[in-house]
């Protein structure tokens, strides 16, 4: 059994001429012949994950001071010597690689290359988009304040963000696996192969639902519920739109409040 633990605590870039605080390093995995899993959890910043033919995991990091990615080196005529520390912790055990940064003060960009057959779980809490590409496996993405994109995916994707667009393109979908997408503010734009078999459950507060598939709509109506505490009955209206594609299949849920729900056929 192999275990790798790398803890990096770095001071912000020093004076002009040194530029951004950045670097990269490989992380060996216990058994390259077996599937692995990657978890990336960044409190402040963006995440980029890409599948490649490599047999290990490559981690790159870059410290950013603002949304443009430019570091401020002077203020009121004073040159910047250093800022707060940048922390990044990486561990590996039994093909499970974890990349974490708990800093709320230093915005960073983390780029990770993994073998194509990795499952991926990625999250960013503040001011960061998440981009995933070329993965054959299960993908789970959470961004509390940023956009989500996943392309060239063969498998399944679950994605949610509070503020940002969700855009996913599939090369292949794993049959029988439920998926869900939700955002409060932004479009949900998903592209599936033409042979997709799924049952969609869709809802938008201020937007349209658009589909490139021929969809058989399933009627929904009022739902009667009993309040066990008071013994009274409540009737609510189910505002979800449900429809089957190619005879139906595992449920795919899509929900937003301000934006369109777009289902494309590849």
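Q: What amino acid sequence fits the structure above?
A:
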């Amino acid at each position: 059994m192999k275990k790798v633990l790398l803890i990096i605590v770095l001071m912000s870039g020093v004076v002009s001429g040194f530029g951004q605080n950045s670097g990269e390093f490989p992380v060996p995995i216990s058994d390259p012949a077996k599937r692995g899993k990657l978890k990336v959890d960044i409190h402040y910043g963006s995440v980029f994950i890409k599948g490649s033919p490599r047999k290990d995991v490559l981690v790159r990091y870059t410290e950013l001071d603002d949304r443009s990615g430019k570091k401020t080196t002077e203020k009121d005529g004073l040159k910047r010597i250093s800022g707060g520390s940048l922390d990044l912790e990486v561990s590996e055990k039994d093909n499970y690689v974890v990349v974490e940064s708990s800093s709320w003060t230093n915005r960073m960009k983390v780029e990770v290359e993994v073998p194509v057959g990795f499952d991926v779980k990625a999250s960013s809490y503040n001011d960061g988009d998440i981009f995933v590409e070329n993965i054959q496996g299960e993908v789970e993405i959470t961004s509390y304040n940023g956009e989500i994109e996943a392309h060239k995916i063969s498998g399944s994707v679950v994605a949610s963000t509070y503020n940002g667009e969700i855009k996913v393109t599939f090369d292949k979908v794993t049959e029988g696996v439920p998926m869900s997408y939700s955002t409060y503010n932004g479009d949900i734009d998903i592209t599936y192969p033409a042979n997709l078999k799924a049952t969609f459950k869709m809802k938008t507060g201020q937007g349209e639902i658009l589909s490139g598939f021929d969809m058989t709509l399933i009627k929904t109506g009022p739902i009667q519920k009993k309040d066990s505490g008071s013994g009274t009955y409540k009737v609510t209206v189910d505002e979800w739109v449900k429809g089957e594609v190619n005879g139906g299949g595992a449920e795919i849920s899509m929900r937003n409040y301000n934006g369109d729900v777009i289902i494309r056929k590849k």
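Q: And what stands out in the fold?
A: Residues 3-265 form one domain.
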